[in-house]
Amino acid sequence: MNSNPNWRFVSFEETIVEEFPNKMHHWYSSPAMVKDTNLLFVRCRMYPGQAHKFHCHPKMEEILYVLSGTAEQWVEKEKRIMTTGHSLYLPANVVHGTYNIGADILDFLAILSPAKSEGPGTVDVSDQEPWRLLRD
User: Fold this and answer.
1) What is the total count of domains within the chain?
2) What is the pTM of this model?
3) Which GO terms fall under molecular function for this chain's record (predicted)?
4) Which of these, 60, 97, 62, 93, lies nearest to 77 by C-alpha position?
5) Which CATH number belongs to the domain containing residue 79 in this structure?
6) Residue 57 DSSP symbol
7) Whether residue 91 has a cis bond before it, omega within 30° of 0
8) Are 126 and 53 in contact, with CB atoms under 8 Å apart?
9) Each residue's pLDDT tens digit, 8-35
């Protein structure tokens, strides 16, 4: 048992799992798991053809790291293909979207900070111009 509440080991089996129709989150670090953390750390497994459509995190920085699969990654109006070992740093409030264009599950890590802030953590803009038609 951990005698120090300021640190924590987390195995894959101990992650907090969130299932969605298009993806699965495995949480390793969040304020619900680690007292006073400034980090959110999640492994995302996104099914083929699915996406985390255009969105932003108004007050959080983010790093994405691809473990496996193929992502069509958008940052504002720029598109890149990301595969195993590729990463992306995003400052706060930058619109981006991750689309699984491969035949396999897209498996990636996301680290966001700060974990706690006023207002929404994520804002979906996929139905707004110019994002709504950008991938057409």
Assistant:
1) 1
2) 0.91
3) metal ion binding
4) 97
5) 2.60.120.10
6) -
7) no
8) yes
9) 889 999 999 999 888 999 999 998 888 8
